[in-house]
Amino acid sequence: MSNLIYKNRQYLNSDALENVVAYALRTDKDDLDNPMQRIIWGGQGIITRTPQTAIDGFNAVKKIYQRNDGNLLHHIIITFRTQHNHKPITNYEGIQIMSNVGFQLLEEGFQNMYFVHNEYDSIHVHFIINSINFMTGKRIADKKHLTHGILSNLYQMTPNLQWDFRIVYKKNNKIDNLYE
């Protein structure tokens, strides 16, 4: 069954974005200007020439609005699976789906990046969202509204998949809360 996991932690360090992007790319954070392209990635509202230029785009919004403190990003993992754990989508379909989800968030004023991982019995995506709205300078206030909006969009775009409508909020790899 496909699901959405919200990494329920505060990303407060000034290098938090670099660390999460390096993790999603499976590279060292010192290689973000020229990483090995083993992971397919993209994003909306940013320049995607290199991961570092994408990070610079997130940071530019924070600088404009002087919002360099507090939670700097939201990290969501989306797993695409069938009932019998077969890969239900291709890498290309994963990119299309995440691009559409990203554009919907961009229309609301939030930059985002996605990293498609094709491994084992599923395709999963690390989805990183700037916590600061580039149109208003305000933070994402309601993670439940954010995650339910994303899940609703995913459900509409992938009617052939069974979605677990419970959103898992994980903190330190333990289930923190389960919302329905």
Structure in a nutshell:
With 180 residues, the chain is of the alpha+beta class. The protein has helices spanning 16-25, 51-64, 91-107, 143-157; strands spanning 3-7, 40-44, 73-80, 112-119, 122-130, 167-171, 174-179. A seven-stranded mixed beta sheet has the order 2-4-5-3-1-6-7, sandwiched between helices.
Protein architecture, described:
The structure is a single chain. The protein is α+β, with helices and mostly antiparallel strands and 180 residues long. It is 31% helix and 26% strand. The chain has 4 helices and 7 strands. The chain has a 7-stranded mixed beta sheet with strand order 2-4-5-3-1-6-7, with helices on both faces. A hairpin with a 2-residue loop joins strand 4 and strand 5 (122-130). The radius of gyration is 15 Å and the shape is globular. The mean pLDDT is 84.
Keywords:
180 residues; 31% helix; 7-stranded mixed beta sheet; 26% strand; single chain; 7 strands; globular; alpha+beta
Write the layout of secondary structure elements.
Elements: E1 3-7, H1 16-25, E2 40-44, H2 51-64, E3 73-80, H3 91-107, E4 112-119, E5 122-130, H4 143-157, E6 167-171, E7 174-179
Parallel strand pairs: 1-6
Antiparallel strand pairs: 1-3, 2-4, 3-5, 4-5, 6-7
State the end-to-end CA separation. 15 Å
Order of helices and strands: EHEHEHEEHEE
Helicity level: 25-40%
Largest sheet: 7 strands, mixed
The assigned structural class equals alpha+beta
Quantity of strands, as a count: 7
Percent range for β-strand residues = 25-35%
Give the neighbour order of strands across the main sheet.
2-4-5-3-1-6-7
Shape: globular
Helical stretch count? 4
Q: Which stretches are low in confidence, meaning pLDDT under 50 for 5 or more residues running?
A: none
